[in-house]
Amino acid sequence: MIKGLLRCFTAYVKDDGVKRLIMKGNGSAFCAGGDIVAGVQSIYNESWKRGADMFRDIYSLIYIIATYIKPQVSLLTGIVMGGGAGVSLHGRFRVVTENTVFAMPETALGHFPDVGASYFLSRLPGFYGEYVALAGARLDGAEMLACGLATHFVPSNVVSLFFHSLEHFRLEIINNCFSKRTVEEIISSLIRQWRTQTVGECLQREYIMVCHVIRGEFSQDFFEGCRAILVDKDKMQRFK
Question: What positions does the domain Enoyl-CoA hydratase/isomerase occupy (predicted)?
Fold first, then answer.
């Protein structure tokens, strides 16, 4: 799917017939993230470089989305977690409903919130980003809008009407409507390094970190977390 999205975003930016991009899930959820179990198994069966290639593709897609010149709207219905957050929260417009559930649950797997989370979480008010990252806290649509992760809120009972109207609006009308609401960033007295970096710099650093994780150089916690949460499901992580 990642390679398919990479091809689409690369092709659409050069296609004058494509005026805007709309992303939504094929079902009740937007995206719960990638298949971590399959990814870990490929690392075990092949090598850590297989995982590195996978993360490179994901991070490349995220960077393209974050720097895309055409308007992109993501409808975040239902679950938005992990990789699903990565391919949506870096976009220009993030629309949530009362049914949206967002989280970055990587710490329970012995991993760290990646997919550019060091960029968007470090820009949340105060130390809210640290809380979301370390606790794996779940946020609903209203909370996402309040802290700045989402740009707009649409009740679920009018979502279909919203997108029907959006598909027929001219580009200048879309820009005019969406530009009326902005979320002001709150800068704390403690300046954190990631808060001042570009999304590209954050993704580069995360890629180096994730390669260390999947190589198991310093710890096997990620593999132990995947075993306890996703494979055996005993929820008895034995982190070291």
Answer: 1-168, 189-239
